Amino acid sequence: MSYKKELIERITELKELASGSSLWVDQEIRSSVGLEVDELASRVKRTEGVLFIGLMGGAGVGKSTIINALAGEKISGSSTKRPFTERPVCYHHQDTQIDLEALSDQVKSINIADAPHQVERIRNIVVFDMPDFDSIMEEHRVIALEMLPRFDLVIWVTSPEKYGDLSFYEMLGRASQSQDNFIFVLNKTDLLNNHNGTK
């Protein structure tokens, strides 16, 4: 279930709980809770029609290139030493309000980097660039697995130098419960000729 759908379900449960609590909660408190729930529902509705994409891959496979290709222009720096490799980075249109603090609290209190942009082409797409899962830090893999169910779509990126890495298949095995929304991308295909001994 996506993060968005999960939030909507929880909001519905809150509204039912608040309205059915007349026997043990006074009217003033119920009204106050009702207003807060309505505000939360309004915030979620602002992201209706927005696709949440998780970008998974090892170091140097070209995840930034995929983000820039989606945007049609450069919004992510292409480097194996990106400034936020230790945490997920959320790329979203500046007019799309994403409650990163609430999401962080749900996923083991991780710190998600905010990367707003102004690209109209991907106004309705929110991309989470996840930490490299072939890092020596197990925490990176844990964060990635925790966030997987919150994505509408997961793009797994690999490259000719990386497709044989055991870490890629280990992560896929650990994430098998979410595989109905997976897309696989082989990046840097220009390197295939080099692997075949040609230039």
Note the main attributes of this structure.
alpha/beta, elongated, 17% strand, 199 residues, Rossmann fold, 2 domains
Description:
With 199 residues, this protein is an alpha/beta fold. The chain contains 7 helices and 6 strands; from the N terminus they run H-H-E-H-E-H-E-E-H-E-H-E-H. The protein has helices at residues 3-19, 27-45, 63-71, 100-106, 138-147, 166-174, 192-195; strands spanning 51-57, 89-93, 113-117, 125-129, 153-158, 182-186. It has a 6-stranded mixed β-sheet, covered by helices on one side. The longest helix has 19 residues, at 27-45. It is elongated and about 70 Å long. The relative contact order is 0.16.
CATH superfamily of the largest domain: P-loop containing nucleotide triphosphate hydrolases
Helix share of residues?
A: 25-40%
The CATH topology label of the largest domain is: Rossmann fold
Average pLDDT over all residues: 75
Q: What's the number of domains? A: 2
CATH level-1 class of the largest domain: Alpha Beta
- What's the overall geometry? elongated
State the helix count: 7
Query: Residue ranges: pLDDT <50 for 5 or more in a row?
Result: 79-84
| End-to-end C-alpha gap | 45 Å
Overall structural class, as computed from helix and strand content, comes to alpha/beta
Largest beta-sheet characterization: 6 strands, mixed
Radius of gyration based on Cα positions: 20 Å
Helices and strands, in order, run as HHEHEHEEHEHEH
Number of strands: 6
Walk across the major sheet and give the strand order.
Answer: 3-2-4-1-5-6
CATH architectural designation of the largest domain: 3-Layer(aba) Sandwich
